[in-house]
Amino acid sequence: MMFPVLSVLLLLFYQVIYSVSGAEFFSSIHEMTKVFGYEQKMLLHMQKFLSDNQGKLDFLKARLREFENERNEAREWGPAYFESPINKYLLNKRLTVDWQRVENLIAASTGEKPLTRLRKFRHRETMPDKKELEGAIDGLLRLQYVYRLKAKEMASGILDGVDYGTQLNAEHCVDIARLALRDQHPRLAHSWLMEANDRLAGGERKEALKPQILVLLVQAKKELEDFRGLNDTYQELIRIQPASEEHAKNYETYIDSLDEKALLNESKPILEHAPIPEEGEPVDEFQAYSLTCSGHWRLTPKEQRHLRCGYVTETHPFLWIAPLKAEELFQDPLLVLYHDVIYQSEIDVIRKLTENRLKRATVTGHNESVVSNVRTSQFTFIPVSAHKVLSTIDQRVADMTNLNMKYAEDHQFANYGIGGHYGQHMDWFYQTTIDAGLISSPEMGNRIATVLFYLSDVSQGGGTAFPQLRTLLKPKKYAAAFWHNLHASGVGDVRTQHGACPIIAGSKWVQNRWIREVDQSDRRPCELWDDSLASYAQILELHKQNEAEAAS
After folding, report:
1. H or E, element range at 159
2. Angle ∠(94,100,102) on CA atoms, nearest 5
3. Percent of the chain beyond pLDDT 70?
4. Where are the beta strands (DSSP E) in 304-430?
5. DSSP states of 451-508
6. Are the C-beta atoms of 427 and 514 separated by less than 8 Å?
7. What is the per-residue DSSP string for 70-123?
8. 286-320 pLDDT per residue, tens
9. Which of 101, 273, 414, 472 has the fewest C-beta atoms lying within 10 Å of its C-beta?
């Protein structure tokens, strides 16, 4: 079942969570589906609570009408009403038995049982907390930044051209803008605040939200140096809340803080996203990763024309009768996509093996592995000895790569959720990381190669971006990507820097096989030169130049 991120975000918005969660849900669609099931049970308990209390209210309303009718009848009769012994009996019964029943019913804690069960669900360790809500909003902002989405379309439930029919209200937009400002994304914050202002409805909520929007707009416009817009926003804020000494004081402080170059009539157009860099313009690593994920950086047809597709048969005799389908995506460094190399029956076994074993993914820090917003997914490691299917997969990887799998790491499985991603990184280890003892089994050497299996299709987003190669792999179920992480000399190849692009909609399951360099010298021998300093083509070109100089 597919959970678009906006739908899941709304689910989180309406859950008031007080407990501290031991797991994370925004980083895994698999975990979110569990929570979604819990909410169904919570709704049933809420319905039971309402039903019990509705019955109580219906009974009290009926008694109220009955007592009022009898009193009105007594008033009409006057003193003659009490001449009837039946009426005397009815009044005494009403003032004793009937009112006691009413008193008991009002005092009774109707709905206590479903309320207790509801609280039990809400306080489960497996329920999300407020940190999860921030994670969900962070995922939305990441999608907006990386794929250059518009806040207006996102608030209308349109994600990268697909309409999911989910609307956000003004309050949701303000919450997203507030987090964007906190995380220093003033452009995105400004776009969400303008959308919040457009979505304001009348009534008390408008009166409460309008000042909040203006206060946040002041902050965004100041960071974006829109001085005229900032001044106009301050004036509007003071106009709707003239009694606020804080606004007046902040405005005076703002005027005093302006330098001589800042003019109040100076206005800058505020773009929701920074312009796409021109060819040759310097960009940072995250920009490069984002531009590759969004498809703005890609190889030209001319650069792709020498790439080939074909069948691999030479690494094992078995492949003569069952060759592997290979698609070349880059030649130097080698990047290959193998098609149909894992089967649904194997994926079913993997899903059972990973059930209830996923935890928040970590990255290698200075002294330890740490949770980071650079990597929002859930993962687990399983040794090859856990099931024969894993051994079968390793044999297939050996056939695909012509590498020895004896010293491969444990199988890693990962699931990506709301905006789930893994920012740009290299799979190989820096020497400082090895020296600090932050990797397991350092005697097995560095990661010579990676094989990445795609265990699911992804509705939108979720590709694997190689910024330096300007190549984006779209997830395709049953396929696997293969690349060398190291030069033949054993030096880490920075060109293999890659990242998992954010999930827009759907669930992404992958399997990583990281192969270590020990006992691979006969499979991938060194070159006669240091290939980390020069490629074979560069060596040939240098040789030709030397021959030409010698001939002259």
Report:
1. strand 158-159
2. 90
3. 80
4. 309-312, 324-330, 335-339, 359-360, 363-364, 369-370, 375-376, 378-382, 411-416, 421-425
5. EEEE-S--SEE--EEEGGGTEEEPP-TT-EEEEESB-TTS-B-GGG-EEEPPEEES-E
6. yes
7. HHHHHHHHGGGGGGSHHHHHHHHHIIIIIHHHHHHHHHS-TTHHHHHHHHHHHT
8. 999 999 999 999 999 999 999 999 999 988 888 89
9. 101
